[in-house]
Design goal:
Belongs to the glycosyl hydrolase 13 family. The chain contains 18 helices and 33 strands. By secondary structure, it is of the alpha+beta class. Among the domains are: about 90 residues, Immunoglobulin-like; about 350 residues, TIM Barrel (Alpha-Beta Barrel). It is globular. The N and C termini lie far apart (about 80 Å).
Length: about 700
């Protein structure tokens, strides 16, 4: 009996698309084909040469969808394609894609589809559904995250490798992992080359007229793919679907969500995109999606009832078209994901003028209908270490004569381009990296950290490493130990943010004292309390967050915070708002603290402590992430002196704030005053400024003091 005679066919149903198993165990094939030629299914059976052809006319057609059912097969017996005339078509709905199982190798002449094994044991799996306000996102590339030999995992560069790193993610404080494209795509592409001259073209032809272009790797995967199938070469086993499900299940057990990135070019139909998202939610329990592309149907997806608890991120969220009459969502699952945070913060970080108004807006921004995803680095552009080490891009390894990648990086090398041994430069870079992390983690939106930034991984100045499947992109985990002090700092900053709800509120703060407690929820300060200069030359800001407006564990008031941002190259005195009797400001985190510990003698430390410490010290209980040593500041008219290019976090400790405490102007309900004044306040004046215009013109104090003794 032939294979064709063993297979029985029946009329099919037009939905779901692709291949599905019916209740009676048959396989239903459905394909949308616009053709007048004969079309059908090609079955590639085990141990058989030519495929079995099953024409669709044996089934039925609904609209442009052809369908038929097959009896006598199981999922492990076959692979399949569709055909229309002489054209072989790989099913865009295939749950598994065969023919591209090994990363970076040429695919077979035609990819083939397959189906997933049934019966995955999800157990008690439940989505964490972490609110956006409580989320810490972590962007990673499946292959690059653990491919390096230093990763210490058994299954390098795979979904299983990520599972082995879950304890690290938990320790870091991550609540959601965002995967760069992880559906099946063809990574081998023709190499991009500059158009050859006539002489070069003639020489190439004379040497080998039939030579093929050298393929290159599309490492990132932002291209059209097979969106229903997880990427086979990212699996350690021969069962990518099951391994991906195991990853989701393991992350959920650790309280971590999984967000997937998808890039959809304009040619992809909008209804197909909706089916893709539904598939990954139902089949893989994925928690959210970052959608990239010019024609993503955001409103369609955002209003789909099935996705009401699924996080959806896109460049701009059109809330006016999604929510009627200003309504707010029951579960805030939508967020805008763009560079609006990145550029102002980078400019502020390197000391550009006229950045403060935009920075204050970014720190406060937190709309009620949709969240905002904040980041200071992303997969494209400089890594955090490169942001403070390079003035310009160095993309020569990409083979495009350094023409690719953005020229607008808003970066500053701190006095030396690339690698250096100058201690002053290295100290400043380390401090700038800490400043960048605190700018990100003290903003009210949802922070996104790029994998490797937490321990100073560098792409060697390449701001567009889309084709680098090597150590340029593979995380070097030895840096986690070499830069352990910085990694510990990041962990502390994340822990402080997570422990205090006033630092990540569900909605935007109002800057009003609507509790009549004497303090607004957010207020701005500078060299004078309750007054902040926002003119072009101002590079400092003190933000007070009143803990009475947030509850810890939904019971007790949170503590109040004062965050002093000084991105000027000179030190400044920050005026501290007077606290009620019995409370003091305690310093818990400082980006300059490590340098102070390295340089100052015991006598210097005693003098500094005497200058900054008030009478009536009170340490109070120490929360997770806070420094063991804390200076206290209390009473009216007190200041904290913050060194140039550094950030200091103070917390209010002591007895609880009284319910009726008059504010600085005696008002019970008012907006914090922001004074735009070109004149320097007389109170708490910083030391006289020298003629220094910032990183774009001169080098900072640390480098000027280092002199020529430091060598490369």
């Amino acid at each position: 009996m032939t294979a064709r005679q063993q297979i029985k066919t029946y009329p099919g149903v037009p939905y779901p698309m692709g291949v599905s198993v019916t209740r009676d165990g048959r396989l239903n094939f459905a394909a949308a084909l616009r053709t007048k030629e004969e079309c059908g299914v090609l079955l590639y059976l085990k141990d058989r040469g030519a495929p079995v052809r099953l024409p669709f006319h044996m089934g039925k057609k609904v609209g442009n969808i052809y369908c038929l059912q097959v009896d006598g097969l199981t999922g492990s017996d076959f692979k399949y394609n569709f055909y229309a005339g002489d054209e072989v078509i790989t099913d865009p709905y295939a749950a598994v894609i065969y023919g591209n199982e090994k990363w970076g190798r040429r695919v077979s002449p035609a990819l083939k589809g397959g189906i997933c094994a049934e019966g995955f044991d999800w157990g008690e799996d439940r989505p964490p559904m972490t609110p956006l306000s409580d989320s810490i996102l972590y962007l990673l590339h499946v292959r690059g995250f653990t491919r390096h030999i230093s990763s210490g995992v058994e299954h390098k560069g795979t979904y299983a490798g990520i599972m082995e790193k879950i304890p690290y993610l938990k320790e870091l404080g991550i609540t959601a992992v965002e995967l760069m494209p992880s559906c099946e795509f063809l990574e081998l592409e023709r190499e991009k080359r500059q158009e050859p001259t006539m002489e070069e073209a003639k020489k190439r032809y004379m040497e080998d007229p039939e030579a093929e272009e050298t393929p290159r790797i599309n490492y990132w995967g932002y291209k059209e793919g097979y969106y229903f199938a997880p990427k086979f070469s990212y699996a350690a086993s021969d069962h990518p679907a099951e391994e991906f499900k195991s990853l989701v299940k393991a992350l959920h057990a650790a309280g971590i969500e999984l967000i997937m990135q998808f890039y959809f070019p304009p040619s992809v139909k909008q209804t197909y995109i909706l089916e893709v998202i539904r598939h990954w939610v139902l089949e893989y329990h994925v928690d959210g999606f970052h959608l990239l592309g010019m024609k993503v149907p955001v409103v369609l997806l955002a209003t789909e009832p099935m996705l009401g608890n699924t996080k959806l991120f896109c460049e701009e969220m059109p809330c006016g078209d999604i929510y009627e009459n200003g309504e707010t969502p029951v579960y805030k699952n939508l967020a805008s994901y763009n560079d609006s945070f990145l550029y102002p913060m980078r400019g502020f970080l390197k000391g550009d003028e006229n950045m403060l108004p935009s920075v204050l807006s970014c720190l406060k921004r937190n709309p009620s209908q949709a969240g905002v995803i904040n980041y200071i680095t992303n997969y494209s552009g400089f890594s955090l270490a490169d942001l403070v080490s390079y003035d310009g891009k160095h993309n020569e390894e990409n083979g495009e004569d350094n023409r690719d990648g953005s020229d607008s990086n808003f970066s500053w090398n701190c006095g030396a381009e690339g690698k250096t041994r100058k201690k002053a430069v290295l100290r400043l870079r380390r401090r700038q990296m800490k400043n960048a992390m605190l700018l990100l983690l003290t903003a009210q939106g949802t922070p996104m950290i790029v994998s490797g930034d937490e321990f100073g991984f560098s792409h060697r100045g390449n701001n567009n490493p889309y084709c680098q499947d090597n150590a340029v992109n593979w995380l070097d985990w030895r840096l986690a130990e070499e830069n352990g002090d910085f990694l510990a700092f990041v962990k502390s900053a994340v822990a402080i943010r997570k422990a205090h709800p006033i630092l990540h509120c569900p909605e935007e703060l109002t800057m009003l004292d609507y509790l009549s407690c004497g303090f607004p929820d957010l207020s701005y300060h500078g060299e004078e309390a309750w007054k902040l200069r926002t003119d072009r030359q101002s590079r400092i800001a003190g933000l007070m967050y009143c803990g009475s407006y947030a509850k810890r564990n939904r019971q007790e008031d949170d503590e109040s915070f004062y965050i002093a941002y000084n991105m000027h190259w000179e030190e400044h005195d920050f005026a501290l708002p007077a606290l009620p009797e019995g409370r003091t400001w305690m310093r818990i985190l400082d980006t300059f603290e490590e340098e102070t510990a390295e340089k100052e003698t015991e006598k210097d430390a005693a003098v500094r402590a005497a200058e900054n410490t008030s009478d009536g010290l009170g340490t109070g209980p120490k929360d997770q992430g806070e420094s063991e040593t804390a200076e206290a500041y209390g009473g009216e008219g007190k200041h904290t002196r913050v060194p140039g290019r550094s950030i200091r976090i103070l917390v209010s400790r002591g007895q609880a704030l009284p319910q009726k405490q008059a504010g600085p102007s005696g008002s019970r309900s008012r907006k914090a005053d922001v004074k735009e004044d070109a004149k320097r306040p007389g109170r708490g004046k910083a030391r006289a400024s020298r003629p220094l215009a910032g990183p774009e013109k001169d080098r900072p104090d640390e480098i000027q003091k280092a002199g020529p003794k430091d060598s490369e």
